[in-house]
Input
Amino acid sequence: MKHLTFLFQYIVNPKTVGAILPSSSFLGDKMIEHINFDNAKYIVEYGPGTGVFTEKLLKKRNPNTIIMLLENNEEFYLLLKEKFKMEKNLYIVNGSAEKIEQYLQKYKVPYADYVISGLPFASLPEQVSHNILLNTSKILDKDGQFITFQYTKMKKALIEQFFTKIEIKRELRNVPPAYVFNCSIKEKNVEENYGIENSYCG
Output
């Protein structure tokens, strides 16, 4: 049933949904493999869709960890509200990731340790992508990570404008195969003192 829902939403909203099928469990595992669930206090997910990544986050998180889901598609939002209605410390917001700062303030979330994203930057308007990445870099904790997947590397240069370290891994067991971008911002003094390169690519 969720596959049919996803396919219909792709037909109606191809630029914001970005794929004809939900992400695979294999891709989900790769998206969360670097999350320190013992220490993470706040996790944000952009574009959770039918909740493939969300289920994994909820299963592994510390019960006290707050998770915020930001879903712009109303049908997916309603599906998520019903699917996860019994979960504690979970906020589900129907809105744009461009306004993440506003939503964090509303729910008194001071920052994000991790931001997980299923947004298709390749098909979003350039300015929208710019705003989302800029605001994401603002809300992350100093050791925070932005983790996104894309079907090509064409937006790597755009993401590098906001994140100084990017590690990329490929997941072939997805339709279509995807690249996972693990992004962070290194402190200036580390770059200067140790001369570490600005970008890493798998």
Q: What stands out?
A: The beta strands are 42-46, 66-71, 90-94, 112-117, 140-150, 165-171, 178-184. The radius of gyration is 16 Å.
